[in-house]
Amino acid sequence: MKDLQFNRHRRLRQSETMRALVRETHLRKEDLIYPLFVVEGENIKNVVPSMPGVYHISLDNLQAEMDEVVSLGIKSIILFGVPAEKDELGKQAYHDHGIVQEATRFVKERYPDLVIIADTCLCQYTSHGHCGIVKDGKVLNDETLDLLAKTAVSQAEAGADIIAPSNMMDGFVAAIRHGLDEAGYHDVPIMSYAVKYSSSFYGPFRDAAHSTPQFGDRRTYQMDPANRMEALREAQSDMEEGADFLIVKPALSYLDIMREVKDRFNAPVVAYNVSGEYSMVKAAAQNGWVNEQEIVMEKLTSMKRAGADLIITYFAKDVANWLS
Ligand code: PBG
């Protein structure tokens, strides 16, 4: 044993203070973006069954929720709307008094410093549940772009600080940028769902948003989980079209993609820790099979280590609490 040569990695692990000194990745409250589902109607605060701890909230109940979010030190929210009525063209998405527009006004008035991100898509608003205009069983690309630009402009008008288009039509960043600029919103950034896979991890969200496609699936517009080069092409065209942030979604099964996007593009990268990733932890934790806090902190830290600058997560309130 005497002449044995090897590296002593354990030297830097011997105490919590030593480990803290050499820790490479840090999760901060400022990294968190909290998703909220706002619904039309009164006095509603209903738990989403497949997402314990996540609620459908009507505007009259939003104040209490926002007070909590802000007092925890969360700096940003992303709003998803669940409208009372749906139609073929998703008109409530771009209605001046649509649920996201109204919720944005409500929050902006009370918390002017909070960053409000508006999700820009049609699937919660269309009767068929697809993210674009449907004709003869096909989701039309270019015809949908006008509606997306219209939605984004109405959200900016209501006070949204960032527009986050999640629909995966080609050219959506260019169309929305053009629409926003024409309406005078040059300063409103676009957080593009640039790399969005067609994923089974969205299942609980579709329960929450009532946005399950009524026929077929989203594979003609969302990406094949098997593909890597395709993700880089998507990110590249969104950058060229003027995206200010790039989202990679889902997060956990796509950490390799997140790292590549971070290394190749000079824009903030956002991990979307999606609904299925949330529900699986919740279910296991409720059964006592995992330690929820430790699992969640490990997962979110791994997203940051993979290159995420920001994380959209349903765990945001819990994490903010744990970080306090
Ligand atoms: C809408 C949209 C979806 C999610 C965010 N925006 C669902 C989908 O594409 O079906 C999923 C979010 C989650 O699972 O948490 N286009």
From TrEMBL:
Native species: Rossellomorea vietnamensis
Top-level enzyme category: lyase
Encoding gene (name): hemB
Enzyme Commission numbers on file: 4.2.1.24
Organism domain of life: Bacteria
Protein name per the record: Porphobilinogen synthase
Alphabetized UniProt keyword annotations: Lyase
